[in-house]
Design brief:
The complex is a heterodimer of chains A (about 575) and B (about 190). Chain A has four domains: about 5-215, 3-Layer(aba) Sandwich (Rossmann fold), CATH 3.40.50.970; about 225-320, Rossmann fold, CATH 3.40.50; about 345-520, Thiamin diphosphate (ThDP)-binding fold, Pyr/PP domains (Rossmann fold, 3-Layer(aba) Sandwich); about 525-580, Alpha-Beta Plaits. Chain A contains 20 helices and 22 strands. In chain A, the strands form six sheets. A seven-stranded mixed beta sheet of chain A has the order 3-2-4-5-7-6-12. In chain A, strands 14-15-16-18-17 form a five-stranded parallel beta sheet, with helices on both faces. In chain A, strands 9-11-10-13 form a four-stranded mixed beta sheet, with helices on both faces. In chain A, helix 6 links the parallel strand 6 (about 130) and strand 7. In chain A, helix 10 (about 240-245) crosses helix 13 and helix 15 packs parallel to helix 17 (about 410-425). With about 190 residues, chain B is α/β, with parallel strands linked by helices. Chain B has helices at about 15-30, 80-85, 105, 115-125, 135-140, 145-155, 160-170, 175-190; strands at about 5-10, 35-40, 50-55, 70-75, 90-95, 130. Chain B has a six-stranded mixed beta sheet, with helices on both faces. In chain B, helix 1 (about 15-30) packs across helix 7 and helix 5 (about 135-140) crosses helix 8 (about 175-190). The longest helix of chain B is centred in the last third of the chain and has 15 residues, at about 175-190. Chain B is globular, with a radius of gyration of 16 Å. Chain B starts with a strand and ends with a helix. The chains are: A alpha/beta (about 575), B alpha/beta (about 190).
């Protein structure tokens, strides 16, 4: 058997391959993105990016109804978007197995909230597995497909950032070969969820959960590890690893299927201990259910609901033993992320700042426009929210203040759920301005293709949505296209469209700097001619990582190694001090 | 007492930290150890502070190094080294690249880059090795091989066969860059 080091995400992709999956669909989202990217190495799997998570799940449901094992992946907030099909899929059940991977982000490393997806398992009555390392990520994915077909249910596989992005050693297996071939098969009583049919299915759903609870009490994914017998711990997922680290002598009930819980197994285990802990990240999901069984446990009174766990934090919570943290003292300047040198978004945000716009923002690299010195974002709620938020706030403002409102959204986010907001904006006659930052890629999550990039996940060329035509056909009369490297034009256009009393859209068209095929022509880096630099600091308003202030000489400098020659800084300088290197 | 060894890599997004931790993990796996590594992708890649945890030994549970148990802080930038010093265990070792990268507040002239960091680090942790990574990478022929130079410097501190490092580099570095990286590795190995 071959052993390799895989991340949790790579292991899930491998598990899907070994389980015989034929179709995989997803919308990118940290920390889930690499799962689908890794399925592309297996030619047997038809893997594709959908414009949003709802469509991804609907594609997966379709192929599962056709009889194929289907994988759908998303980040935690993606399930909010996909919740509509999810809750009814729970009623229809499956034909080919369906596993929905949801990757949570405790600590909000790259997210707008810290929601605990285990609650979705209970809410939608969809069973959920939770692996604790890459080997389990692979095994539980395969197990998920088997259980999906055995119990006629979709299955959740829950990961977290520390599972998805940790690597550990995995033993590989072979792909399952004996699966039935997909075909058309009609079964209206099960697949047409009208009230008469769905009412009956609800009974099946409830019975299914009871059956799975009994089954789970006798499966090896729920296991007891004996210690010295003095204290007991119930735990699951990555928390298990921290328990083993911090409480090596404890008896541990490690739960692999976190919903439905193996209640009889928990009762039998709990009976042995006076002191019983539940160790879990985020919500008291297991704790509340165990307490509802009449069992006394120690959990969230000691371990925070907020943030992720670490060995040190667990130790601190349970034993009041303080753990050191990284040095956050003010003498050490912080190093937040920044837009890349040459990022086409930078000049747009500098101009929004100068125009004193009230910017309803959205989710993407450009959310970094919030940070100083650009400081040009006033709201950021969820994917696609910028446009609806602009419409709403404009409704309650004076005419003068209305003109300050600008929604800013990226191409991928616009197609994800922003387009509906634009329909509303036109339909209900809002005077707001929308800027679509079209860099032709889903950049923040690591540059994934989308319907505006002209390429698919498998790198093949495809139709590229014409953003200008799309906006016009929705009914926007004023659509301006501009190159955001042209600062004068960007400034003029933003100010004109802000003043307009009808819905208007500005589309900026520079591709992301990091996409090799779209990279601009080789340009020379710039340098600052110190004789001309007056030290006015106008260029520093860009916050470009390539420009640094020389305190000793009171001049700006350019780091030639990272400068890409976009020349936006040149246009901010009133003294012609920015020159091209020979 | 666990035999697990903990190496914390630190630096700035774009410095090649993730590749260095991949090579290190591969070497330890080839050496027959259990290995886990952990890092955060996403936001931090955009020029932010980046860390990667590598742990190896007989059996590794947590992929996050327990706070205060870092054996070696393997750092690509001076300021980032200081940020993570509190996570080292007593008598821990530091390998630090002698490089300053200005964070935004310094680049904007609002804050000064702290002075005398190498002295500060060596004072707190006498077992500190300072490597002039960029000079050696330029000597190897490519400024982007700093991460390999530093791996070379790290390799002499770890009890692993030299051949495994070469095998891992052969496996993980793109063929056209292999020779230059092997040279960088040797320069790092002989740096001090």
């Amino acid at each position: 058997m071959q052993k390799v080091i895989l991340s949790g995400n790579e292991a899930i992709a491998r598990g899907a391959y070994e389980a015989g999956v034929l179709v995989a669909s997803a919308y990118p989202g940290t920390p889930s993105t690499e799962i689908l990217e890794n399925t592309t190495q297996y030619k047997e799997i038809d893997a594709s990016w959908a414009p949003n998570e709802k469509v991804a799940l609907e594609v997966g449901i379709g192929s599962c109804f056709g009889g194929a094992r289907s994988l759908v992946t998303m980040k935690h907030v993606g399930v909010n978007v996909a919740a509509d099909p999810l809750f009814t899929l729970s009623y229809t059940g499956v034909r080919g197995g369906l596993v929905l991977v949801v990757a949570d982000d405790p600590e909000l490393h790259s997210s707008q909230n810290e929601q605990d997806s285990r609650n979705y398992a209970k809410f939608s009555k969809v069973p959920m597995f939770e692996p604790a390392d890459s080997q389990e990520a692979l095994e539980f994915t395969k197990l998920g497909f088997d259980a999906s077909e055995q119990f006629d249910t979709p299955i959740f596989l829950r990961s977290t950032t520390r599972i998805s992005h940790s690597k550990s050693i995995v033993t590989l297996g072979d792909r399952k070969q004996d699966l039935p071939a997909p075909s058309l098969e009609r079964n209206a009583a099960k697949l047409v969820m009208l009230p008469g049919n769905a009412r009956k299915r609800h009974y099946d759903v409830e019975q299914r959960l009871l059956d799975m609870e009994d089954w789970a009490c006798n499966q090896s994914f729920n296991r007891i590890e004996k210690g010295t017998g003095k204290v007991g711990v119930i735990t699951a997922g990555v928390s298990y690893q921290y328990v083993k680290e911090v409480m090596p002598d404890a008896d541990v009930l490690k739960i692999g299927l976190v919903y439905p819980l193996p209640k009889q197994m928990i009762r039998d285990f709990a009976a042995n201990y006076e002191t019983l802990y539940v160790v879990e990240e985020l919500d008291p999901f297991i704790e509340e259910q165990v307490k509802a069984m009449g069992i006394n446990v120690i959990g969230k009174e000691k371990i925070s609901i907020c943030g992720e766990l670490t060995p040190g934090r667990l130790q601190q919570g349970l034993f009041d033993k303080a753990a050191p943290t990284e040095d956050n003292s003010p003498e050490l300047p912080p190093r937040p992320p920044n837009m890349c040198p040459g990022c086409p978004h930078r000049g747009v945000f500098m101009e929004l700042n100068r125009a004193k716009a009230y910017v309803t923002g959205d989710i993407g690299c450009y959310t970094l426009g919030f940070l100083p010195p650009l400081s040009a974002m006033d709201t950021c709620v969820c994917m696609g929210a910028s446009i609806g938020n602009a419409t709403g706030i404009s409704k309650v403002l004076s005419e003068e203040d209305q003109r300050k409102v600008v929604a800013v959204i990226g191409d991928s986010t616009f197609l994800h759920t922003g387009i509906n907001g634009l329909m509303d904006m036109v339909y209900n006659q809002s005077a707001s301005t929308v800027i679509i930052l079209d860099n032709r890629i889903t950049a923040m999550t690591g540059r994934q293709e989308n319907p505006t990039s002209g390429y698919m996940l498998n790198d093949l060329e495809t139709y590229r949505i014409d953003m200008e035509q799309l906006c016009k056909v929705v009914g926007v009369k004023h659509v301006k296209i501009l190159d955001p490297y042209d600062i004068k034009l960007t400034r003029k256009t933003i100010r004109e469209e802000m003043a307009r009393t009808e819905t208007s859209v500005i589309i900026t068209t520079r591709p992301c700097m990091l996409v090799p095929r779209d990279n601009m022509d080789k340009r020379m880096p710039l340098y600052v001619e110190h004789d001309k630099c007056t030290g006015c600091k106008a260029c520093l308003r860009l916050g470009c990582p390539a420009i640094t202030w020389d305190e000793e000489n009171k001049k700006s400098n350019i780091d030639k190694i990272i400068c890409v020659g976009c020349k936006v800084c040149q246009q901010t300088c009133g003294f012609d001090a920015f020159l091209e290197c020979e | 007492m666990s035999d697990v060894k903990n190496i914390l890599l630190a630096g700035v997004g774009g410095q090649g930290i993730l590749l260095a931790s991949e090579v290190l993990s591969e070497v330890m796996m080839m050496d027959g150890k259990d290995v886990k590594k952990n890092e955060i992708h996403g936001m931090s890649q955009r020029g932010g502070s980046v860390t990667s945890h590598v742990r190896y030994g007989e059996k590794v549970y947590s992929s996050i190094i327990p706070e205060g148990e870092v054996d070696i802080l393997f750092s690509f930038e001076l300021l980032e080294t200081c940020r993570y010093l509190p996570l080292l265990r007593e008598n821990g070792q530091v390998i630090v690249n002698n490089l300053k990268i200005a964070p935004p507040s310094v680049a904007l002239g609002k804050q000064a880059y702290p002075e005398n960091l190498t002295e500060e680090i060596s004072k707190q942790f006498p077992a500190t090795t300072v490597v002039n990574g960029l000079d050696l990478a330029l000597e190897a022929g490519n400024p982007k091989t700093v991460n390999t130079v530093l791996l070379g410097a790290l390799s002499i501190m770890l009890d692993v066969d030299y051949e495994l490092w070469i095998k891992a580099l052969n496996k993980m570095v793109p063929a056209r860059l292999l020779d230059i990286n092997l040279k960088a590795f040797e320069l790092g190995r002989n740096a001090n």
